[in-house]
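Section 5.1 Outputs to date
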Amino acid sequence: MIIEYKEILDKLTDINKIDLLESSAVENNNRLLRYIKRLHPKVAVEIGTYRAISTVVLASVCDFVYTFDVLYQSYAESILELFKTENVKYIYKCKNEYPEIIEQDYIDLSLMYGDEIRDEISTLDFDLAFIDGCHGVYKEVKKDFEAVEKCGTVLFHDYRDKFPEIIKFCNSIGCEPLGEFALWQK
């Protein structure tokens, strides 16, 4: 069953967690959903689970989703349960022991655990990758791409001025800009 923005908004409103949509790849224009439906993947890999809002959209279109993050987020598991996404495997490398995580923490964790995640991804078969991981380090964005490019279709999130490393990398490999997304295909 395809899950659109309105359904996500309604369910988050019902549980008083509308703030979980902030910093999400899911917008009221359903752009992510439209791109995923157009690409029609069977199995997706997502790098950067965060709160799992985009994971829910991916899972509503794909047969199966592997979603990876360096940091466990309890909200992610709650969201996956709320939307009954049984076709998702959530993989993380460490538990969140701090109430406030800043971007530098994610960068540090990506540098520590990124290669381990990418090694695990290299063992999987999938036909779409959605990269919404480490935003601030060019070489980490590049390594994420190299880990998933075998699938032939990679959609990046946060192709915008706030994240110049994403823009720089996407431009270097000839991505098609799609608003705050960028698409690379073999």
